[in-house]
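Moderator note: this is an archived Q&A kept for reference. The question asked for a predicted structure of one protein chain; the sequence and the answer are reproduced below.
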Amino acid sequence: MRPHFLGAARSRPAVPVHRQLISVLLAAAVALLGLVALSAAASPAAQAADPAPVRNLAPPSIYDDPDAPDDGPTVGQLALAHPGVWSPTPDSVTLTWYRSGSSEPIGTGAVIVVPVEALGQTLTVKATAAKAGYAPTTVASEPSAAVLPGTPANYAKPAIFGTPETGSTVVVWEGAWSVEATSYTYRWFQEGTAAPIGTGKELVVPAAADGKKLTVEVTLKADHWKDGVATSDPVTAHAPGTGPVRNVAKPAISEHPTVGALAVAHPGAWDPQADSVDVEWFRSGSANPIGTGLTIVVPAAALGETLTVRATAHKEGRADAVVTSAPSDVVGDGTLQNVEEPAIFGSPVVGNKVEAWPGSWFPAPDTTTYRWFVEGTASPVGIGKTLTVPAAAAGKKLTVEVTATKAAYDDAVATSAPVTVTAQGANPVQNTVAPSIEGTLKVGETVTADTGTWNPSDAARTVAWYRSGSPDPIHTGPSLVVPADAEGEMLAIAVKATKAGNADGYAVSAPQGPVLAAGASPALENLVPPAITPNPKVGQLVGAHPGVWSAEPDSVTLTWSITGEATSFATGNYVVVPPAAAGKTLTVEAVATKAGHTSGQATSEPSDVVAKGTLQPAVAPKVYGTPMPGATVVAYDGVWPAGPDSFSYRWLVDGSPLAGATTKELVVPAGTTGKQLSVEVTAKKAGYADAALESAKVVVEAAGTTAVQNVAPPKVLVNPASGLPKVGDLVGANVGVWNPWPADSSGFVVQWFRSGSAQPIGTGVFLVVPPEAAGQQLSVKVTAKRTGYLDGSALSAPVTVLTSAQSPACGVASTALTSATVAQAGATAALVAAEAKVSRLKAKKKAAKQLDMRTKVAQLKVKLRKARSAVATARAELGTADANLAAAQAKHTANCT
């Protein structure tokens, strides 16, 4: 039995641990050497004369443990023997060890631990070889070298006890050793000094040790042994009243915890005495605490696991100290308690049906099973909740045995008080429809008995009224004014039917209730509280089961709160966990309503601790701009669906951070040509873990090797009223968008072209359309120039120049047709994308459902609803685009044909 609470902090550890280790080493050595039990060879032919001895070819020999070589056998260490070489190969070789000072053996086998009695003496080993059909032979080894003194083994290091405050006295515990000490010597050391600062068992901590580590070296001295030396773990000295609280004895847990029972913790011992100690309980299968304080009721989830407590000691002016206990015994099954014994309802008459009431149990069992017994028989006469009384029970006592079961608890059995069975007469009155109680089961109300249906139907009937918990009737007669002592109990009636010439018949109603208090309405009682799905996380859906109620509610409203906060944050079966819940737990309150009943309320147990959300980008960060020394590049944050509160930046060259480069923009530094530039964007949002993502790397280019980049192409600008230009019209050029932008307007070269000719028909940002362009395509080419960059060029989309036969309306119609065509193509693509998303989500939902991933299924249902709504919107937009395109085509035909 281990100590109930605090172990003897200063006692020696048990030596058997060392002995067990030696046993393991012995077994391992024997297995590796394979020297004692050698495999048998074929037996020689049987000899008619005396059997020949097994011949020794090489005598046994002694050698040291190869893992701990020494100058000879050493006290406390292993000595090993080789069995020698024999002919023929023996069936077995027995090795017996001796010391030179005695004829008594000191051990057998291939390996021994050298005893202290052999110190200074020599060892020999005698090998006796045996083989079937041969005479055994015994040969001794040469004596070993003289046995040397051994070094004591230190099982537990010395330790410093007391508060290591300057001016205070601390004392050393010498530790635990493999041998009994004759005496000890001590040397105290202070961090940073080579000479000891004390040589006694106690030390007054000097002022110079403030803030430094103290250790003590303990030397054990014992007769026939070398000195053993061990050093304590360091402790830090400090000024009085300033050091941390030190744990002297760990917290501990009461023995043999069981589910549903109270487990008790001792908070441990502290130096100096703590002002207060906070205790948290944990089970081995979860990182989340299962309770706080010195006691908890062990939950079912801990069955088969161990418990630990984490104690945090507080003392004013000192740093807190945290220590965790050793694991408890494995948590065993709980015990179901029978609060009120089972009972038998009904008239125990042969042929009648009686019913078992299971009694009251704590906690409430998951299931109850029944076995009926008749006095004098070992086998049950029935196994259900009800029993038709058999003829063999007449005149005997009848009992019912109830077995209650619950997950994580041992099964429990309780037996009812016996009732005596009455024999049934001939031709009994038969009950064909069971009796029942009519009316409101409420104190002070009058309820009546429906005596059921009988054969023959004119049988006279008498009624006895019963309440649960009492074997005696509380009333007789066809009606009952419900008494006050029936509040909260179940009611039943027993009906006796009589008719001349027939045996009496008996029937009992099913129990009904429980009885309400006077003036009360039936209440919806919560049988199983609501429960929250496990492992909630900020930004994700979490769901709740509404619980189980005494009657099916018309509705259950679920209100979500962060545990400990007065205000709720959402209602419904599923909610998205808010950022404020990170690191806390959730609770859900269920309010159930039903017509004619008072509403019921129940609150869930706190959820698992809410994990911080995960920020995930939909589009990764990117470096915008031309990466060239002296040029400015900009960090694009990416797209983060959760909407971070802020971003921070870190620019990297070849994967290493640039000193001071932590802003959104960066002037690319000199000397980086040919290196890889990237930016690490860190998204931050309350309730979420920071998420850092590095952009794709871009190569820093040398000046003059990169062209000015066109971001948006040039455009031909025409009079909006005419739609398309005609000969003689003034048209202009929009130069587009460039990166980097030319220093000024002189950085653009603008040239005009018509189809059918490679020569420009004009330059500059304006052009009067010449006659040769009539009926042809007109476009503008822009060349952008900037110092340090190659020229960049881009060509506009062409526009048609009207002929003299075409009206201005044709130009407007052509422009409108182009726009309508582009819009219709975009709407078609949007519908295809939306329908594809629905298909993907349906496939994911099907897979999650097959894996019983309920939380994931709920999340996907929400996404599917949104995706289907997007499909409907895309279809409507495509219909509008189709109509607009048809109208534009008709207008173009009318004006341009």
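Archived answer notes: Confidence is low (pLDDT under 50) at residues 1-48.
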